[in-house]
Amino acid sequence: MTYLRWTLLLTLLGCVLALTGWQSLAPPVRTYDAVPVERGDIESGITAPGILQPRHYRDVVAQTAGQLLRLHVEVGDSVREGQLLAEIDPADQQAAVDASRVQLESLGALREEQLAQRDLARQQYERQRTLARSGATRQEDVQTAHAELRVAEARLKSTDVQLRQAQASLRSEKAALAHTRLHAPLDGTVIAVGQTLDVQKRTPLIRIAQLTSMTVHAQVPEADIHRVKAGMPAWFSTLGGGGRLWPARVRQILPVPPRPLEQMIPAAGDPPGGGQETGQGRGVLYSVLLDVDNEDQALMAEMTAGVFFVDSSVRGVLTAPLAALQGSTDRPGVHRVQVLRQDGEPAPREVRTGIRDQLRVEVLEGLAEGERLLVNGANRQEQ
C-alpha cells in the first residue's frame, strides 16, 4: 500500500513538472488593448469660463442726501413693486418744503397788493384820458398816469415770475422729501444691501433682481470668438450643480472687452485693444451673454459656470476614440487605425472621420459597429 501511494505521488509530481516546462517553452500569447466601435453622440465646440448674473435687476439709489434712518429689508427678502425699502431722515427736506411754502404765500400776498396797484393805475390813466379829450387836464398828466400804469404792470409780471419760480422750488423740495422714502421699483429678491449713502457718486443702496431668468457672462478668447454667433446653442454646468447641464443660447456678443471707460484710450507705448495677461502673453477675452430660465431658482448670482458652445453636433453615429487614430494621410479627414481581426491580430485600415470632441471622433467610412480598434498602438505579451 505504501509503495502504491509513493508511485502515485511521483507520477503526479512528474506531470506538474512537465506542464511547467511546457509553459516555459511555449511562445508568448499576445494580447492587445482595444476598444469597440460604438454608436453615440458627439458635440464639437468651444469651452469658456463664465459668471452667472440675474438678467433683470434694478438698483435703488438715494436721490437726496441725509442720514439713513431705517432699513426695512435684508439680503434674500422677496419684495413687491412699490414696497417701502428704506427711510432717510426727512428733517432737512421737510424744512425746505416749509420754507418754500412760506415764500410762496408771501409772494401771493405781494401779488394781490400789486394787482390792486395796477388796477388803481389803470383807473387813473383812463380818467386822465377822459379829461384830456375835454381839455380839462394837461398832456403831461396823461403821460404820467400812463407811465405809472406800465410800472404797475411790470411789477405784477415780475411777481408772477417769482411765483412760478417759487412753485417750481416747492415741487422740487416736495420731490426731495418724497425721495427720503425708497420704494421697490419691481417685484424681485434683494441680492445686495449697502449701509452708507453717497448721492454724489450715486452708489446703489439696494439691488433687487428677478432670479427666474439668469445671464451667463462667458469669457471667450479672441482666437475662438469668430466661431461664436448670436443664437448659437450652448450648455453649461456649475461647481455645485451635481453634474446637471443647463441649456442656453447666445443672446449677445459684446464688441469690446469689458474695461473701465478711462482705460479705453491706451497710454503711449501700449498696444491698442483690451488685453489681459495670460500665461502666454497678452490675450483678449470677449464677453458673450447667454440667457437661461431659472424657474426652480437652482442658479444663484455670482456662480461660476463652465460653458460649452455647440459649434456642430451629430446623434447616433459611429464613433471611435481619438486614441485609436495613429496618423493622418494625404487626404483630408482620412486617418489610419489598427483593427483587430478575428484571429486577434491587428490589421491597418484607413477611415474617414468627421467632427470630434475631446475624447471621440465621428466615423464616416471604413469601420463597422462592433469592430475593435487598437488604442495608441500599445500591446502587451503574457507568458
What does this structure look like?
The radius of gyration is 44 Å and the shape is elongated. Helix 2 packs antiparallel against helix 3 (139-178). The longest helix is centred in the N-terminal third of the chain and has 43 residues, at 91-133. Helix content is 28%, strand content 40%. It is built from three helices and 18 strands. The model is unreliable at 260-281 and 379-383 (pLDDT under 50). By secondary structure, it is of the alpha+beta class. It has a six-stranded antiparallel beta barrel with strand order 2-8-13-10-9-14. It has a three-stranded antiparallel β-sheet with strand order 3-5-6, with no helix packed on it. The two termini are 40 Å apart. It folds into two domains: 31-56 and 211-383, Elongation Factor Tu (Ef-tu), domain 3 (Beta Barrel); 90-179, Helix Hairpins (Orthogonal Bundle). It is found in: Cell envelope. This is RND family efflux transporter, MFP subunit. Residues 59-203 form the Multidrug resistance protein MdtA-like barrel-sandwich hybrid domain. Keywords: Coiled coil, Transport. InterPro entries: MacA_alpha-hairpin_sf, MdtA-like_BSH, MdtA-like_C, RND_pump_MFP.
Which descriptors would you attach to this protein?
383 residues; alpha+beta; Elongation Factor Tu (Ef-tu), domain 3; Helix Hairpins; 3 helices; 18 strands; disordered C terminus
What is the topological layout?
Blueprint: H1 2-25, E1 29-36, E2 38-61, E3 68-71, E4 78-79, E5 84-88, H2 91-133, H3 139-178, E6 181-183, E7 188-193, E8 204-221, E9 233-238, E10 246-253, E11 276-278, E12 281-283, E13 285-293, E14 304-321, E15 334-340, E16 346-356, E17 360-365, E18 372-382
Antiparallel strand pairs: 1-18, 2-8, 2-14, 3-5, 4-7, 5-6, 7-8, 8-13, 9-10, 9-14, 10-13, 11-12, 14-17, 15-16, 16-17
Helix pairs in contact: 2-3
